[in-house]
Amino acid sequence: MQRFETKTVVITGAASGMGRAAVHRFSQEGANVVALDIDEAGLKETVETLDPARTATQLCDTSDEAAVKTAIDTAARTFGGIDILINNAGIAVQGDVETTDFETFRKVFAVNVDGYFLMAKHAMPFLLKSGGAIVMTSSVSGIGGDWNMLAYDASKGAVSNLVRAMAMDYGPRGVRVNAIAPTATKTPLAEGTTEDPEITKAFMDRLSIRRYGTPEDMAAAMAFLASEDASYITGVILPVDGGMSASNGQPRQ
């Protein structure tokens, strides 16, 4: 498929995991791709096998508004506009309300929520011109709660409602806004979960498709929501979770 030929896609969190897989997926489907991250070495690894004529990288702390504006303006100038924004950068910490200090709580929100807001805000003028789309990375943790993941859960809940609010505001103006909601996926961010045998057994008891998701699974869902195949879909938080959210939580008999 070449669903994104002539399109320009900006992807955050592109140095590893789902972001790296998204860079490769959109590039394979013909897009010009601008890969953003704070990890310079990881960005270089992400794009080393891709066509340099259709690929650009930029160091960008997405919680810094000046850096975001520069990155967006540079991306638009490099490829003549922006058609798709993939808001994917994210961090996670463990802790409940007593053990999570305020500085940590704010840092999680700065990356997971403020960064998504800032990227959308500064990309929106270009997306309005192109009739574009935004896809964000929320989580099953933005739909329901986890044990001991207060800051992360709160941030992903905010992402889910940011998507819904923006879909309402910008659907009439031609821009669609959606999100994927992964469960634990085999990425560097989730290694503490996916490499732990006891936690893995508990996950497999909940997953109908009995494996962890891969970055490529998530990138495929991002590409679908960004494409014209999803032209009548907006405001959706799409679980990409191996059937986890289909369960009501009761154990198998």
Automatic annotation (TrEMBL):
GO molecular function: oxidoreductase activity
InterPro entries: KR_dom, NAD(P)-bd_dom_sf, SDR_fam
Superkingdom of source: Bacteria
Domain Ketoreductase per the UniProt entry, residue ranges: 7-183
Coiled coil: none
Listed CDD domains: SDR_c
Protein's UniProt keywords contain Flavoprotein: no
Pfam families in the record: adh_short_C2
UniProt KW keywords: NAD, Oxidoreductase
SUPFAM superfamilies referenced in this protein's UniProt entry, alphabetically: NAD(P)-binding Rossmann-fold domains
UniProt family annotation: Belongs to the short-chain dehydrogenases/reductases (SDR) family.
Entry protein name: SDR family oxidoreductase
UniProt organism field: Paenirhodobacter populi
High-level lineage: Bacteria, Pseudomonadati, Pseudomonadota, Alphaproteobacteria, Rhodobacterales
